[in-house]
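Q: What structure does this chain adopt?
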Amino acid sequence: MKTRGFTLIEILVVVTIIALVTGGALLALGLIGGQSGSSRDLERLQSLLLDARDRAELENRDYGVRLLADGYEFMAFDAGTGRWLPIADRVLGVARWSTPLELELDVEGRRVLLRREPERDLAPAPDFGVDASGEFTAFELRTVVGSPPRVWRLGPDDAGELQLRELQGREPAAAPRIGQ
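A:
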């Protein structure tokens, strides 16, 4: 009498199914892959800045970003009044960080002190932005994300293209904790 076992194909199918289910569960739990909420926040800001650049070129208008204690706000320059005005828009407007971030901002090579408290400025101005020609301000926004800490940089590269990248072997200087 011959006993029949499983074929190699049957075993491979079962192993593949188990691997897919396990991988899906780990991704859903956030244990592998994926990114922290902080790096997703930076990717979203990068995407919105690219959208603002497109709008600036189409509308021949300057756009800016003002960092807030718990997020950021997009602004547009109104040539008629000579003032920066907040944008009341579903896409560009006020956004909140998903988790508190430690931020550093340099604009044109100079450190910018970030606000801890909401300002009651009568004429608020952006911290950085994009002009009507589509050129970004020379800025570098850095943050520490995750554990172990990883330093991320958002800003234009030498060619003027907006880049989000992880900095290797470099810790930012002490910066105020934003979003608490």
